[in-house]
Amino acid sequence: MFIILVLMVIGGLFYIYTSENKYHSCFMEGQVLATQQALTADGETNLLGDVLQADPKPSPGNSIFFHETSCRLSENRQLETLKVTARQACAIESAAMHNPNFQVFVLFAGPTYRISNNNSHPQPLVEAILSYSNGHLRRLNLESYASGTPMEEWLKDGRLSRSKYLFSHISDFLRYLTLYRYGGLYLDMDVVVLRNMEKVPPNYTGAESNTHLAAGVMNLAATGFGHEIAASCLRDFQHNFNGVDWGNNGPGVITRVAQKICGTKDIALMREDPKRCMGFKVFGRGAFYAVPWKQWRDFFEPEKLEETIARCKDSYVVHVWNKHSSKLPIKIGSKNAYALYAEQNCPRSYKAAGEYF
Fold this sequence. Notes:
Blueprint: H1 2-36, E1 63-68, E2 80-81, H2 86-98, E3 103-108, E4 112-113, H3 124-130, E5 135-139, H4 142-146, H5 152-156, H6 166-182, E6 184-187, E7 191-193, E8 204-207, E9 213-220, H7 224-240, H8 251-262, H9 267-272, E10 281-283, H10 285-288, H11 305-311, E11 317-319, H12 322-325, H13 337-345, H14 347-352
Pfam family, one: Gly_transf_sug
Keywords: Glycosyltransferase, Golgi apparatus, Membrane, Transferase
Organism: Drosophila melanogaster (Fruit fly)
């Protein structure tokens, strides 16, 4: 028994070390490399602009945000070329297409850059995004992005870097921090926006189940009550952070904060009584999560096409649950709900994807 305990302790220490090393080598060391490798041979910068510095900057309360939190450094310690998948491009394009008066920002937390004016390495999906005048690609530095916010000191204590679900929890960290900084609309990368959301009153999220709200679609005003909610989310994130629980720091945060605002844990009461939540709107599942994650295959099965379209007829957004569906490619022209949504709502990305989407 003693030997087993010793091995468990050693294993835990090794996990913490490798996790922290992965965090620092990629996100922190990568920022240094980004500075060193920012210029091409002809002196032109090909590094993505920092969201805090590059123009145009996010317009508080009138911007849509996506986060890309995977972090890649090649074996020879070079920065990776910017990459987006067809489905990520679809999410971004659909947001830009349906919301022309909002600026759409994709924030890359890992150190990455795109090659400029290099026709030998075309990037059709990146070009599809940038073909919209309101589409913007930016990088962020975790430390400088947190600087001057309630998360500045918390980030330095290392709890995030020791997370078992590092990239997922960085995504959770950033979505609440971004809403605190700018307000506006946060969207997960595995959605398709189906219609305009510019006139939906701010300060809302959606129910995923009868017991939990979800954190994949959230809107908060940049000032007033919305900013107070964002500050409450940051406090909850710090106080309840759990590096070994996948959902505690994402949907768990907005669920707990909403419970306090609304004075109830009953999701039905949150939805049915707007006054109870003091103006914070909780949409029913049909708005953003009409197809629950356990039925994610319905988006991809031809025999479920009509049923799925009918189920999502009143949705603003469909969520295709990338954690489960990402390894199931669909052939362009397939007769399923996801292919139909993509063809209609992100036509340029759908066309640029190639044979499979």
